[in-house]
Amino acid sequence: MTLIVAYTHPFSRGSIHITSPDPRVPPAIQPDYLSNSADLDILSRAVDFTLRLYETPPLKDIIIAPVAPPFSKSDSDSEKLNKFSCEVISTVHHPVGTASMLPREDGGVVDHDLLVYGTANLRVIDCSIMPLLISCNIVTLAYAIGEKGSDIIKKANGD
């Protein structure tokens, strides 16, 4: 049996930057997992809750020895929980928000018309405009953003 702690709404914000004018050169991606202290606290509490589940019937009766974390609830403390959380962190979500639709002063990249700030005709019309994660697959939002973006472009061109 596998229990996984999946933290799907992190507060931490990473960054992505162009590294070359050549579009074939990969960008510099810095996810900055756990850069917001609330994320580590929430994740560590979730691991602590999982340890309590391990010791609760009927799970207690069928788990011979947990593989991770490598300590029991009675042997855990906030330092161990934080250390373990930092060692095993990874993503299970669809990263979004690299070109967030937010006010420019809040770190936004595009406005409500999906125009990149400081440009006259460059738009971003994909899930990178989403400033926050949602608790579902993002494909339907990709379609909705595409449809809305096409409507905005048609309106801007007088269609």
TrEMBL record:
InterPro entries in the cross-refs: FAD/NAD-bd_sf (IPR036188), GMC_OxRdtase (IPR012132), GMC_OxRtase_C (IPR007867)
Record keywords: FAD, Flavoprotein, Glycoprotein, Oxidoreductase, Signal
Organism per entry: Marasmius oreades
Protein name stated in the entry: Glucose-methanol-choline oxidoreductase C-terminal domain-containing protein
Family that this chain belongs to: Belongs to the GMC oxidoreductase family.
Cofactor: FAD
Residues of the Glucose-methanol-choline oxidoreductase C-terminal domain: 10-146
SUPFAM superfamilies per UniProt: FAD-linked reductases, C-terminal domain, FAD/NAD(P)-binding domain
GO molecular function: flavin adenine dinucleotide binding; oxidoreductase activity, acting on CH-OH group of donors
